[in-house]
Amino acid sequence: MAEKIKGKGVISGIAVGNILLAGQNLDGYLVNYKPGRKDTEKKKAADGIVVVAENLKRSIDDFNEKGLKEQAGILEAHRMMVEDPAMSALIDEKIDESGSAPKAVLDAYETQAQVFESMEDEYFRGRAVDMRDVGKRIAKHLLGIKEPEIVGKVIVAGRDIEPSVIAGLPTDKIAGVILGVGSTTAHAVIIAKTRAIPTVVGVGKGIEQIADGDPVILDGETGEILIRPTDKERKSYDTKIKKQEELKAHYAELKDKPAITLDGKEVELVANIGSPDDADAAIKNFGATGVGLFRSEFVFMGKTDVPKEEDQFKEYKAAVEKCAEVTHGEGLCVIRTMDIGGDKPLPYIQVGKEENPFLGYRAIRISLQRKDLFLPQLKAILRAGVYGKAAIMFPMVINVQEFLAAKEFVEMAKMELVHEGKEYSDTVQVGIMVETPAAAVMAPILAKYVDFFSIGTNDLVQYTLAVDRGNAQISYLYNHFNPAVLRLIKRTIESANKEGKWAGMCGEMASDPNAAVILMAMGIKELSMSAPSIPRVKERIRNITFTKAKEILDKVMEMEDGDKIRDYLSTLS
Amino acid sequence: MTEVTTTIQNKTGIHARPASVFVQKASSFKSKIQLKAKGKTVDAKSILMIMSMGLVKGTEVTIVADGPDEATAASELQALIDSKFGEA
Hints:
The structure holds two protein chains of two kinds.
Chain A: E1 3-6, E2 8-11, E3 14-21, H1 27-32, H2 38-65, H3 69-82, H4 85-98, H5 101-117, H6 122-126, H7 128-143, E4 154-158, H8 163-168, E5 174-179, H9 187-194, E6 199-201, E7 215-219, E8 224-227, H10 231-254, E9 268-273, H11 276-286, E10 291-295, H12 297-300, H13 309-326, E11 332-336, H14 364-367, H15 371-384, E12 389-394, H16 400-420, E13 429-434, H17 437-441, H18 443-449, E14 452-455, H19 457-465, H20 483-498, E15 502-505, H21 513-522, E16 526-529, H22 534-542, H23 546-558, H24 562-572
Parallel strand pairs in A: 3-4, 4-5, 5-6, 9-10, 9-16, 10-11, 11-12, 12-13, 13-14, 14-15, 15-16
Antiparallel strand pairs in A: 1-8, 2-6, 3-7, 7-8
Chain B: E1 2-7, H1 16-27, E2 32-37, E3 40-43, H2 47-51, E4 60-66, H3 70-82
Antiparallel strand pairs in B: 1-4, 2-3, 2-4
């Protein structure tokens, strides 16, 4: 049995190779180094800096030629650190102290690294690595150390890998990356991402169990790392790798095909996103035909003040444009208004301590009382609507009054925009999330007022069954196939269709291919999920008839036990 | 001597790449250029000094240029910061 360590998978894929430990120790070389006179050492350091800068320049040109802008940019910053006037002065000072040019270089950059480490901002703290990297690069040159020769494919591992190590290796030589630290903003991770190298971060002390040259298998999805695997373990991964590649190829073929049943019933498969960039990836890589849930929270998080209309407008516009681009102007972008409460307090929203934030002052309940938060968001969405098709969705609605009050804010937002002479779209749809049992029960009435429903199953299941899914002792009760939940969902979809409106789903249930079958039969128009799930669901829909799906639904609605429903559906796939 | 004040607007602040763009630009002028922020003053032609100031979004900075091309230097560097270095 191989030793196993686990971290957080950040770039998916399976990699097999031998370990190349990054972060070479220079102590041995330093002891054997024979320094000359102080002015000779100073001259040596100055000359070394010129040579290292020239070498970097060559790598930068090389990256630029290959169109690898990200890497070129990082090395450009390194080159400037090497040539920095402030550093040469510091190096001279350190030579006066120790008399050795390579040691002085390491000391000088170490001093600077510590300045960065003491900084508050996480990003700048992370740059200490770049400093040490640059220092080491110059010191290695002064000590006459050559970069290691690489034979075959390697998995680069280190507590904290210097970006130049990854940037400096040819892409086809690096199979994977393992980092001891957990930072996803490390330059090493950024580079790995642009090259799609499977990467696991945050293995912590686990890194000490790996030795140079060890054969390992790394799973960039689960974060698992097998050290010195047996032949049998290796074989089991061989099949996994092969399957992974076949599936990838198959899903790639599906990307541009519609989610349509064998007898011609089509369902829209769209994406849940948190930023405009997510929309781009969902459409390009997974064939999403729009966005069913844009979680606008990121606009609100990490800010000390109420986010400005203009800043929000830019983000929403970018997402709306992305949807419009790919689906010939038909791709809808549903933007959910702020869904924040006492569980994630913000400096400008005073919620106070609550016994149960999930039943507390949150989402639409805050928006309706905070015109200063709500209006800028609505105005930003209405303005973004000009650039494609946008929709506004209110979270946590429990009754008609809340919806009507929120709708009045939309009218107010429009009036303000007219007054300010700003362009906006008058055709932006306005709907609600159905995520409380109250909304589902009242669906026939609510459907008269809204333009659409989107069923949020994560909360709907939790509130309907009174089950906290995070509580391990009772999580067995959490099941989106529970007959009570299915009845609420069916009622919601049918109510929308009866009023000529549409219903979609944006909870986790939407990404379950078995659920997709019965939801489709209930008359759902759109399923919104995290983008990587789209191909799986599409595959299921393309291999069944609508007639068969309806038969399955009829059978399911007669069953009384949620667990049995789940089992029954899984035997069909 | 020319002085202009502006605010860092790009999301991630003056990290490695913007800093290198800024220093390259500053180095293209003959004038002596300094950057003042958070009560510190540093050489605007030193990427390390600039980076070690930890200029995150929202920090107010003053560019002080002194020399033959001080006016152009100050206004072009200000424009560079205001352009968010082509980032979000």
